[in-house]
Write a structure and sequence with these properties.
The protein is mostly beta strands and 56 residues long. The chain is built from no helices and 2 strands. Strands 1-2 form a two-stranded antiparallel ribbon. A hairpin with a 5-residue loop joins strand 1 and strand 2.
């Protein structure tokens, strides 16, 4: 995949830069990392997240 980036050089000269990257790869669902989960043991990706505690 390529993307054109317009930039301005010295003296206002317009330049074009190209950014090349691999196409995005499909990934399994990965839950967002929040501060509450850091430092804990990692969960297997196949386990569903626990529902929030209504008593909290």
């Amino acid at each position: 995949m390529a993307r054109r980036i317009d930039v301005t050089g010295a003296g206002g000269v317009r330049l074009a830069a190209w950014e090349f990257a691999d196409p995005p790869k499909e990934r399994p669902y990965v839950p967002a990392r929040t501060g509450a989960h850091r430092g804990g043991l990692p969960r297997q990706l196949s386990e569903p997240p626990e529902p929030p505690d209504p008593q909290a």
